Amino acid sequence: MASVSRLTATSGGRLVAETDPGLTSAQTTALSATLLGAPHRYTIDWTSSAVVFAVDGVTVASHNRGVAANLRIAAKDSVLDSSSLVVDSAWLTPYAASGTYTSVVVDAGATVDWKVLTPTASIPAGTALQYEVRTGPSATAGGADWSAWATVAALADIPGTQRYLQYRVTLTTTSTRNAAPTLASLQLGYTKP
After folding, report:
1. Residue that terminates a domain, selected from 67, 92, 117
2. 21 and 47: one domain?
3. What is the DSSP code (8-state) at residue 129?
4. Could you give the number of structural domains in the chain?
5. Range of the domain at 2
6. Do 123 and 172 sit in the same domain of this protein?
């Protein structure tokens, strides 16, 4: 049996933190019933010597069971009632030190003067976002007569007067466990010449 750590709602209306290493008996800690029925941020942090459960940043249970294997995430609602399980997001660490997103080609519909690049982003300390753009006269990214990638600061004008644009965002972090940048949206301004 694989190692499992989970937060489980019981039929008695309580939340239970469980760790089952698959070789010996499971370790269980009953938590407050007030943790059910309202949104919270749940964290299960596995190390080589312990499993630490936290709710909204506060440690609520700790099991002295190490986890050496790679684990997977799952969410399950097996209680037949009128409530439902809602997961807004799931974050797995360690974070990669960097990652890159490259957009599809954006078509302005005509040749335009590209203007302000406006991101909606969260950039915690120790993280960064770098924006790059390239423009061209055809829908084939990087084709003949396309510009080279150019770095553009947030809220700065995008260089180029072309119909098509492609952007690239590089996300970096110096923290592998606690902080990663997020990009929710990116607006590309332009005017017709």
Report:
1. 92
2. yes
3. E
4. 2
5. 1-92
6. yes
Q: Which tokens belong to 117?
A: 């690049």
53 burial (CB, 10 Å; 0-12 / 13-18 / 19+) is buried
DSSP assignment string, 79-122: --SS-----S----SSPPSEEEEEPPPEEEEEEEEEEEEEEEEE
Out of 92, 114, 147, a domain closes at: 92
- 41 and 104 share one domain: no
Residue 67: is it exposed, middle or buried by C-beta count within 10 angstroms (0-12/13-18/19+)?
buried
In 3-state terms the chain splits into helix, strand, coil percentages (rounded to 5) of 0, 50, 50
pTM, two decimals, is 0.61
DSSP string, 166-188: EEEEEEEES-SSS---EEEEEEE
182 and 114 within one domain: yes
Classify 35 in phi/psi space as left (phi over 0), alpha (psi -120 to 50) or beta. Answer: alpha
Q: 77 and 46, same structural domain?
A: yes
* Full pLDDT tens readout for the chain, 193 residues: 456 676 666 656 667 777 776 655 566 767 776 777 777 788 888 777 888 888 888 888 888 877 666 666 666 665 666 666 677 777 676 777 899 999 999 999 999 999 999 999 999 999 999 999 999 999 999 888 999 999 999 999 999 999 999 999 999 999 866 788 999 999 999 999 8
Question: What's the token pair of residue 49?
Answer: 């010597």
